[in-house]
Design brief:
The structure is a single chain. The protein has 341 residues and is α/β, with parallel strands linked by helices. The protein is built from ten helices and 18 strands. Helix 1 packs parallel to helix 5. The termini are far apart. It binds flavin-adenine dinucleotide.
Length: 341
């Protein structure tokens, strides 16, 4: 079959690779020019999961790892501090990983796809892998995004571990994710656009040199809030249909899981739209609970007593998927965290 893919990020590069491997004809359209094509992301995810996806796509994930985390420090409101033991959370060369996935796949850079001008009829299916932009699918009235930006830094001293500042009311967080050789991503997502921690970081690290300043909002609305997933022969995959873990704004692994669901719904002659929709909704069902927790917390309405079932659902599901997150999940720490924010 003939596929067009709009967007060469996580979903576009992985699906380009996997569809071509299965013998389909694939063409990718990417808005950025090659020299500017840079994944806006802090490049942190679970080694366990990325190793599996890489293997399927013919890559060796260990070749891309920058930093293997041991322990994440989290500063919380009112001088609370929490430490999380890490079990596979790494940073990796996401730029190279995505580009290596697309080796041998036809890609047109510098082409900003639009609904008005795209030749939909030339393809059996057109995949909307434009992430936040959701360029080809109808807008969702229930969308929710959080502003974010970050710096790629080099020459940073004394910051060799994952570090986070959680904002009051779960309104966002500051991060420093170490890469290699004194490089790291420092940034923040914040509903209120205050980005606490960024100017303090520069004051405390005058040696740090800015290589890039990049940013875009992150979608927190889960798949349940981001329907439709398809429209005519257009199918959304990844962040375009809400595959982001709402508590963390973490979308690499959920997007790849969504890609595999897409591939499962595809046989040699057609795509099963209903099966795709159902499987996406089932697999990311608990993201809706997590999203409700985040929104209740942001609105100052979360009660650990009244919303105990919601909180327990989040804990149980995260515990079941501990390896996929790359950090320890304990009820004790989660309760402390929810209370401290
Ligand atoms: C600042 C920041 C930090 C983040 N850090 C992390 C992290 O550490 N770990 C994690 O798991 N998640 C993180 N995320 C979220 C994660 O990066 C995304 O959820 C994930 O990349 C989504 O994958 P995707 O393929 O759906 O979209 P993307 O990877 O965003 O790819 C979309 C692509 O589509 C292209 N595009 C957009 N519009 C068009 C158009 N009209 N025509 C053609 N091409 C177009 C874009 O240029 C881009 O290349 C972060 C997000 C941000 C903004």
């Amino acid at each position: 079959m003939k596929f067009a893919i709009a967007g060469a990020g996580v979903a576009g590069s992985y699906l380009g690779n996997m569809l071509q491997k299965r013998g389909h004809e694939v063409e990718i359209f990417e808005a950025s020019k090659p020299e500017n094509h840079w994944p806006v992301c802090a490049w942190g995810a679970s080694r366990h999961m990325l190793s599996k996806f890489s293997e399927k796509a013919g890559l060796k994930f260990d070749d891309y790892i920058f930093h293997v985390g041991q322990r994440l420090k989290m500063d919380l409101p009112n001088d609370n501090v929490e430490y999380l033991d890490l079990v596979g959370l790494v940073t990796y060369n996401k730029h190279k990983w995505e580009h290596d996935l697309m080796q041998g796949v036809k890609i047109n850079y510098g082409v900003k796809v639009t609904k008005e001008s795209f030749p939909f009829g030339d393809y059996d299916y057109v995949l909307d892998c434009t992430g936040l932009h959701r360029t080809l699918l109808p807008r969702s009235e229930n969308d929710f995004i959080i502003p974010a930006y970050e710096y790629l830094l080099e020459n940073v001293r004394g910051m060799d571990e994952f570090y986070v500042i959680g904002y009051k009311g779960a309104k966002g967080y500051f991060w420093y994710f170490p890469l290699d050789n004194g490089r790291g991503y420092m940034g923040a997502g914040d509903v209120e656009k205050r980005y606490q921690g960024i100017s303090e970081f520069f004051q405390n690290h005058p040696e740090a040199k800015v290589v890039k300043k990049i940013g875009r909002p992150i979608r927190l609305a889960p798949p349940k809030k981001m329907e439709p997933f398809y429209d005519g022969n257009i199918i959304g995959v990844g962040e375009s249909i809400g595959c982001v873990f709402p508590m963390l704004g973490e979308g690499i692994i959920p997007t790849l899981i969504c890609c595999d669901i897409f591939l499962e719904a595809l046989d040699q002659s057609k795509f099963d739209f209903k099966k795709y929709r159902k499987k996406v909704l089932d697999r990311f069902n608990y993201y809706d609970d997590v999203y409700r927790i985040v929104r209740l917390k942001m609105d100052g309405k979360l009660s650990t007593v009244r919303h105990a079932n919601l909180l327990l659902s989040m804990y149980r599901n995260m515990k079941r998927e501990e390896k996929r997150f790359g950090f320890e999940v304990t009820l004790e720490k989660m309760t402390r965290l929810v209370n401290a924010l």
